[in-house]
Amino acid sequence: MQTLTTHPFDDDHFKEECGVFGIFGHPEAAAHAALGLHALQHRGQESAGIVSYDGIQFHAHRGLGQVGENFSSQATMQSLVGAMAIGHVRYATTGDTTLRNVQPLFADFEFGGLAICHNGNLTNSYGIRRELVRRGSLFQSTTDTEVIVHLIATSLRATVVDRMIDALHRVEGAYSLVAMSSKELVGVRDPLGVRPLVLGRLGTTWILTSETCAFDIIGAEFVRDVEPGEMVVINEAGIRSIFPFARPPKRFCVFEYIYFARPDSIVEGTSVYEARKRIGAELARESHVDADLVIPVPDSGVPASIGYAAAAGIPFELGIIRNHYVGRTFIEPSDHIRHLGVKLKHNANRAMIEGKRVILVDDSIVRGTTSTKIVEMVRQAGAREVHMRISSPPTTNSCFYGIDTPERERLLASRFDVAGMAKFIGADSLAFISIDGLYRAMGHDGRNASQPQFCDACFTGEYPTTLADYDAAGTPAQLSLLAEIA
Amino acid sequence: MQTLTTHPFDDDHFKEECGVFGIFGHPEAAAHAALGLHALQHRGQESAGIVSYDGIQFHAHRGLGQVGENFSSQATMQSLVGAMAIGHVRYATTGDTTLRNVQPLFADFEFGGLAICHNGNLTNSYGIRRELVRRGSLFQSTTDTEVIVHLIATSLRATVVDRMIDALHRVEGAYSLVAMSSKELVGVRDPLGVRPLVLGRLGTTWILTSETCAFDIIGAEFVRDVEPGEMVVINEAGIRSIFPFARPPKRFCVFEYIYFARPDSIVEGTSVYEARKRIGAELARESHVDADLVIPVPDSGVPASIGYAAAAGIPFELGIIRNHYVGRTFIEPSDHIRHLGVKLKHNANRAMIEGKRVILVDDSIVRGTTSTKIVEMVRQAGAREVHMRISSPPTTNSCFYGIDTPERERLLASRFDVAGMAKFIGADSLAFISIDGLYRAMGHDGRNASQPQFCDACFTGEYPTTLADYDAAGTPAQLSLLAEIA
Amino acid sequence: MQTLTTHPFDDDHFKEECGVFGIFGHPEAAAHAALGLHALQHRGQESAGIVSYDGIQFHAHRGLGQVGENFSSQATMQSLVGAMAIGHVRYATTGDTTLRNVQPLFADFEFGGLAICHNGNLTNSYGIRRELVRRGSLFQSTTDTEVIVHLIATSLRATVVDRMIDALHRVEGAYSLVAMSSKELVGVRDPLGVRPLVLGRLGTTWILTSETCAFDIIGAEFVRDVEPGEMVVINEAGIRSIFPFARPPKRFCVFEYIYFARPDSIVEGTSVYEARKRIGAELARESHVDADLVIPVPDSGVPASIGYAAAAGIPFELGIIRNHYVGRTFIEPSDHIRHLGVKLKHNANRAMIEGKRVILVDDSIVRGTTSTKIVEMVRQAGAREVHMRISSPPTTNSCFYGIDTPERERLLASRFDVAGMAKFIGADSLAFISIDGLYRAMGHDGRNASQPQFCDACFTGEYPTTLADYDAAGTPAQLSLLAEIA
Amino acid sequence: MQTLTTHPFDDDHFKEECGVFGIFGHPEAAAHAALGLHALQHRGQESAGIVSYDGIQFHAHRGLGQVGENFSSQATMQSLVGAMAIGHVRYATTGDTTLRNVQPLFADFEFGGLAICHNGNLTNSYGIRRELVRRGSLFQSTTDTEVIVHLIATSLRATVVDRMIDALHRVEGAYSLVAMSSKELVGVRDPLGVRPLVLGRLGTTWILTSETCAFDIIGAEFVRDVEPGEMVVINEAGIRSIFPFARPPKRFCVFEYIYFARPDSIVEGTSVYEARKRIGAELARESHVDADLVIPVPDSGVPASIGYAAAAGIPFELGIIRNHYVGRTFIEPSDHIRHLGVKLKHNANRAMIEGKRVILVDDSIVRGTTSTKIVEMVRQAGAREVHMRISSPPTTNSCFYGIDTPERERLLASRFDVAGMAKFIGADSLAFISIDGLYRAMGHDGRNASQPQFCDACFTGEYPTTLADYDAAGTPAQLSLLAEIA
């Protein structure tokens, strides 16, 4: 509704676009998928879907909104029968939030049904899409996932697995897929392993999902990461592993550690919480400043703050209090009220801050809007000095691998150098962790420039694949002549 | 929700499944389409959709529910920009009421976009669908309309019109289609002309729609019926007519006159209201009985009752009053209350009925449930005799041409002869108009048995096409492995 | 929402403001009350409420909207336990539609609880309200019913019945009340008997309600009208009747016969349907005109039309078709579309009307808006002559007895004489039944000018009570300083 | 809906029942009130209301749900015109959550309108209510606030202020009131000062509210606490202070510091955050245990944990991660899934906890349900030892001063001693801060047994007023015979 506006203190973050979950061999498969998607909700809040298979038929429920809004009625859950299920949560930019884009996608093939869901983003799908349309394929969504589905449909190979391999040989980019046919549950990770995918088990039940926190919620145990370029096929006969693709050195997204993943997940063998603390400690070493307090920008800045405070020997305090009851909308009858609305979500803890030299720790600066407001709020509460420390390098480039980022020119770090950024946000000093510092905190001696250990394109501009679908400005091609009105 | 039940006095009627509307050359095309769909609401109440084209892009809004529920917000209407639009209303059996089946269908083709909507039903689509899937086409809906769309997509012809002709040569059954590309508005009627399609104009604006009542609401004038087997193509250059198919004798659905069409429509040159009065008069002549009052079963029985009363010289009276405020659901805490609920929708006008010999006139008996309740109600109100007269022949067979009918074994007329039916509904006498009487009322000397002037398969079992998609029991083939949960 | 507007073809009628229902001695009392309120829905569509009593506690559910919207969940109905219940439907002008005004009202008194509901309107409540506030009574609603409740609370009499009598001695105006204490169900009708109240039974269960159609729906039998000035008290000991007030000659509202009551109700011993037919016949005798067709303005004009047509010997035809699927709102993107919207609700049956001389029969003209549009529509459909006949005298005055009427200056009959009104609505001729003709149709020799047999103040301006609460312009006093925002 | 259940990990806390806000002299009074109520949302989430006064009329909007659900439409905010407004948030036990109980209450009096809202609870209102009903007062709500309103209405004093004083002389218990007449804004605090009330200003605008965090959100400055027993009257002439009551030593609720108030509020001159840290530090001194980590139970346990960790010299770590996206409902198709649902809201940070000796810090144990689940979760994550430390004394008694507490027999501390409680929750050790330790942390030498410096009845059973409305078991008297069904 036009009378409502997004919350004025909107999160200034890159946004993870998807989380996936698949389960094979449990009588309450869909209920476990719903729990798993709850645990993955931070990876996408705009739509959620589950497809189950009962041995005869597939059952789907997909809707806009969060998991709890879509999977809380007994009638819905009881309809999702079967011992196999896959599920998906999705974040999407406004124009794309229509029901036809909600995953899992499903299609009836010659060989039967197939449901598929995708975390990541392809970088060469547009040309393939045009070619498929030319030969008579009809697209219903604007997701790149549907390109994969059509490639499977038009593959001349015989089995589902062979058709999937055939299809994936055609695409480039980042993908962690979970798919379900009437016979098997399949998980695949792109050859670079940009997005995570993990394998777990619960007794005789197998689970494939984006993060280990989804194992915890259902009491499953972590088995191992799916390897970059690996396809895992689970059926009645058991589990098998295939490596059908070329195997370049892996390039896992380092930003999963900095912000996207949940702190209680273990990602590629490393605790996210520990990684953030280590990054905070490295940041403290790199950019020391005398101060009285280390204050996290809630809530994502907390682990790095704890690491920073311990390394710097400065007390960690909750100098900014978050209001847990803030909803998504607030009405602003006037500019004056809009400005006041800034404090709806956060408030400075004046008793703690007044007269103090304060270090604020946050994980990133995207457009700089939140940082500016936070610095102003902390100053108004009486801070004598405000030093901002950021637990990532400056984000100078967009991401094309399944993360929602503003266009390059709206990134503060692409507009200013660090001194200019400090001035923009109004801080007495500003420092980011260095790119080598980040790699050190992740357990390396530093960044291997000739063969980076991670995908760090948003900091360096070094994209590990070609970007065929985007023009020089990073603008994607238009996919459909149809604008669906919600 | 499971706690609500459908109204206990549910309509015991065959149900028309669709209405279509297309408009070319009006700056408020979508608003006119919405008005037209309002006028066609009796042809389908479960979903509604409009697609417009603004010269660059197509704009769609489609939703479950009635026209008013989907096209009443200014934001929606303002988004449907363009001088060309098509729209659809749809009735669907429960299992199929999912959003992906809501029309108009839209697809991006090599040649651009195409939106299409369909009144009728194909009788050989299943085999074609299987063949298309085998070659890699992916179906998103379970509508037979999508078969046409895929046939267009995979046609090797060059123009939209040629591809449509190519596609329609493959299908059998009933179809009145309205389609819109970026260049033209197209209307087509199947060679038998089973469902109606009319052409109208409003100044320089052309309209194609199911019934003339949709012209009245927008102030347009009726030009002519689209002919069976005719394709009308409207574009900037004007209007042209093509007859690409073989031209068998026409077989218009006679039940459109009996019940489906609105009484204020002119169908194939005949006023529906007048036709119903003539059928009522013929019925009076065929099945005379001494009585005090002629009473219509509200509301569809009124025109035939007026004709019957005039021909029989017996007063026409409103002996059954309809409650206009009845909603769609009513809760029945017990069987006792459920039984009382029968009178929510209708009540006998006791002061008029008590002690009288009553003739009830209705248009059809399907399962007999409503008739049984009405007869009981009229008796309880003190009627001395209750004679039921039906302005159609007994409906002994299902329809496969776009009408929702129960399976054959649930049709009362397939279970009992007329005497048995009279006993079942509890009437003192029961008579249906004869099949020849019906044809006489429609202006013929009687039914031409070797080449019937109408499609009357629901009365005679003589289907004018093969029924490739149905088994001997009339059960359709399963189309998708997916059950979507609303 | 501001983007939605009321339907452009809004009903131009006086509106009955309330219906009441009470039941004593049935294990499913509340479910019967809900059914009864369904039958009374025509007396008020903006709110509905039921209070039951289970022997220990009262249970209430009250809400804005129609009966079906409020009493369709099993949880609600199961909560309304007890063998005694009262219910209410209400129409209210916009400003008053807040939840605190929804009836039945309930209050905890010294003697226990009392629920009360009211059909009618008091004409001296404002002064009493001021006096009660002065002594410390707090009002929660702006209904005059609450004045009665406070008078009961502050009465010094001992029993509920004596307190009710005490309270009602203070008030003037029209009231048909149904009240329920922990001991008894009470029905009262004001001494003039302006609004109806009837007594029925279903085995050993007693029912008090506004119209007999509410008996039909639950299968109860009509016993008798409650007399003007009578109080009926029903408890475990049985039923008794009290006449505590002076007994002036009765003045039942004649408009209940013309429009408010349902045609299938028997009101004060007379069938409403029959009365309307007799009024139509009298109208035909008074205002003959040569014509080809008699056409009712749907739906309320039908019975009078049948009577008119029979008396005039002119065929009755459905010349205007009503669209049953029209919702409450329609969006008008432009004036042009707004004007077209007129035909959403009704359409002229052109095939019947074209070239004919038409008599339109309606029950009343209030502001004249509907009549003007109907006449225009019928002309556009080709009528050669349009003669409007109205089955009530001109409505020149507002009602203050429980009917929603526009202010006097907006009544067409207070602005023009009949010739002026004919011109305003565009009819070739216009005639109203005469006041004496109306009385003749009701079985009298004519109106007794010195002691009219009915309340006919809306036609004559002769109000049967003083109007202490209204100024000369008929504007009511302001009751509360609070404006509640919905 | 019955199919949805409250979240399985429901908060095991005492619940503050209300927050109040009043503003005088600002053109956007209601918008500021809405912002203030957002800041007070932690004091009540089940209903919210605002009443404004525009110089002529009062305007009210009150609804069930949170502030954002009720005050986010522009239409609503624009209707709440005027330079004076009061607002209220409320938590209520299930049975009472009906719209008629939502505050502010409003009444039309002889002297004009008065709106009033209340934080606290009266302990002698039942007898007064009975007496008022006996003399003819009608109660619409079951709130004790309405008793005050009726006492004002029936007072024989002349001015609003004198009537309020007259009324408040009759009542006992805890109340921080904000009231608004057409002339003035009034704030009053009960003589013991149990609940907070603070005075602030924003230029020439005065604000009265429950906590200073509501000043921060609108940029107002804190002026001073309203004194126990003080009445502050603000009108066009300025602000004045009255002390109309006896002045016993004050007894502020110590639990406001422990849990109810926001950590960023300054209450009675003390920072809540600092108080919690001092309590944590004192707790560490009193109940030392060797351990590897101090982990807060999120989110309320964080400040005490920081204090504990610093005093104990043990690292503070986020060992339990809270899921920010958890909604209010979750469906549990089976007991198995219900059990898993425990981890929806919180998850143990296994990487941090495994093999460690852990101290969990929480603010209170009420029924023990949450503590049991948290301890189990931490053990499952591999903790070697789990020691629970609580920053309040054992809560052995119910509160009757505006806090929602379970009945006494459901309080874990009233059923077991500390050893028994430790066993119940499954901890290796359990310790509560001592009552004297709590007073020391609050800056006293210990508790003054003859004249306690705070209200600590929930720990000691020493209630500072009589409890006339409650029987020995603490069960309140029944107030109304009516059960309203939502």
Automatic annotation (TrEMBL), chains A, B, C, D:
<dbReference type="InterPro" id="IPR005854">
    <property type="entry name" value="PurF"/>
</dbReference>
<dbReference type="GO" id="GO:0006189">
    <property type="term" value="P:'de novo' IMP biosynthetic process"/>
</dbReference>
<comment type="function">
    <text>Catalyzes the formation of phosphoribosylamine from phosphoribosylpyrophosphate (PRPP) and glutamine.</text>
</comment>
<dbReference type="InterPro" id="IPR029057">
    <property type="entry name" value="PRTase-like"/>
</dbReference>
<feature type="active site" description="Nucleophile">
    <location>
        <position position="18"/>
    </location>
</feature>
<keyword id="KW-0328">Glycosyltransferase</keyword>
<dbReference type="InterPro" id="IPR029055">
    <property type="entry name" value="Ntn_hydrolases_N"/>
</dbReference>
<keyword id="KW-0315">Glutamine amidotransferase</keyword>
<feature type="binding site">
    <location>
        <position position="458"/>
    </location>
    <ligand>
        <name>[4Fe-4S] cluster</name>
    </ligand>
</feature>
<feature type="binding site">
    <location>
        <position position="455"/>
    </location>
    <ligand>
        <name>[4Fe-4S] cluster</name>
    </ligand>
</feature>
<keyword id="KW-0408">Iron</keyword>
<dbReference type="GO" id="GO:0000287">
    <property type="term" value="F:magnesium ion binding"/>
</dbReference>
<keyword id="KW-0004">4Fe-4S</keyword>
<keyword id="KW-0658">Purine biosynthesis</keyword>
<protein>
    <recommendedName>
        <fullName>Amidophosphoribosyltransferase</fullName>
        <ecNumber>2.4.2.14</ecNumber>
    </recommendedName>
</protein>
<dbReference type="GO" id="GO:0009113">
    <property type="term" value="P:purine nucleobase biosynthetic process"/>
</dbReference>
<dbReference type="InterPro" id="IPR017932">
    <property type="entry name" value="GATase_2_dom"/>
</dbReference>
<comment type="pathway">
    <text>Purine metabolism; IMP biosynthesis via de novo pathway; N(1)-(5-phospho-D-ribosyl)glycinamide from 5-phospho-alpha-D-ribose 1-diphosphate: step 1/2.</text>
</comment>
<dbReference type="Pfam" id="PF00156">
    <property type="entry name" value="Pribosyltran"/>
</dbReference>
<keyword id="KW-0808">Transferase</keyword>
<keyword id="KW-0479">Metal-binding</keyword>
<feature type="binding site">
    <location>
        <position position="399"/>
    </location>
    <ligand>
        <name>[4Fe-4S] cluster</name>
    </ligand>
</feature>
<keyword id="KW-0460">Magnesium</keyword>
<dbReference type="GO" id="GO:0004044">
    <property type="term" value="F:amidophosphoribosyltransferase activity"/>
</dbReference>
<dbReference type="InterPro" id="IPR035584">
    <property type="entry name" value="PurF_N"/>
</dbReference>
<feature type="binding site">
    <location>
        <position position="300"/>
    </location>
    <ligand>
        <name>Mg(2+)</name>
    </ligand>
</feature>
<feature type="binding site">
    <location>
        <position position="363"/>
    </location>
    <ligand>
        <name>Mg(2+)</name>
    </ligand>
</feature>
<dbReference type="InterPro" id="IPR000836">
    <property type="entry name" value="PRTase_dom"/>
</dbReference>
<feature type="binding site">
    <location>
        <position position="362"/>
    </location>
    <ligand>
        <name>Mg(2+)</name>
    </ligand>
</feature>
<dbReference type="GO" id="GO:0051539">
    <property type="term" value="F:4 iron, 4 sulfur cluster binding"/>
</dbReference>
<feature type="domain" description="Glutamine amidotransferase type-2">
    <location>
        <begin position="18"/>
        <end position="237"/>
    </location>
</feature>
<dbReference type="Pfam" id="PF13522">
    <property type="entry name" value="GATase_6"/>
</dbReference>
<feature type="binding site">
    <location>
        <position position="253"/>
    </location>
    <ligand>
        <name>[4Fe-4S] cluster</name>
    </ligand>
</feature>
<keyword id="KW-0411">Iron-sulfur</keyword>
<comment type="similarity">
    <text>In the C-terminal section; belongs to the purine/pyrimidine phosphoribosyltransferase family.</text>
</comment>
